Amino acid sequence: MFSKACEYGIRASIFIAKNSYEGQRVSPKEISEEINSPQAFTAKILQALVRNHIIKSVRGAHGGFEIDKDQIPLIKLSQIVKAIDGDAVYSGCGLGLSACDENHPCPVHDKFKDIRNGLKQMLETTNLEELAMDIKLGSSFLKT
Questions:
Q1: Which CATH code is given to the segment(s) 4-137?
Q2: pLDDT at residue 144, rounded to an integer
Q3: What parts of the sequence cross the membrane (predicted)?
């Protein structure tokens, strides 16, 4: 459903949010290790998140990535998905066909439309705070 970059972007954002609540910045190396992503690929994803004002990059000896604590509850998963993958997840064909719409539907069009709408609802109502707290409390995990 999401690109690998988007999956890593979501995981990185959750990890950064969790650490930001603890008053810690995290390095690209720490992030790539935590989300099990190649460091160069992670760096490109982090740049996209910075450009879209989801995370902040701080340079220097005590630098790294962070999110302002007061912003964490305001950041929705939909913002991360849009920053990395754009809006295609909301309009793409379930079978990957380039020409699939209400007038020319693929065999799964109507069923997939319901799934897409549910996904959109979840992405627009889920914020980083709830996900970071789940990680912090140990009720969910970013890696196995």
A1: 1.10.10.10
A2: 66
A3: none
pTM over 0.70: yes
Which residues does 53 contact at the CB level (< 8 Å), separation at least 6? Answer: none
What pLDDT score does 16 carry?
A: 98
Euclidean distance between CA atoms 131 and 135, whole angstroms: 6
Tell me the C-alpha distance between 19 and 96, whole Å. 37
SS (H, E, C) 47-102: HHHHHCCCCEEECCCCCEEECCCCCHHHCEHHHHHHHHHCCHHHHCCCCCCCCCCC
Tokens 């720490």: give the residue. 30
Q: Is the pLDDT of residue 118 over 90?
A: yes
Number of neighbouring beta carbons within 10 Å of residue 81: 25
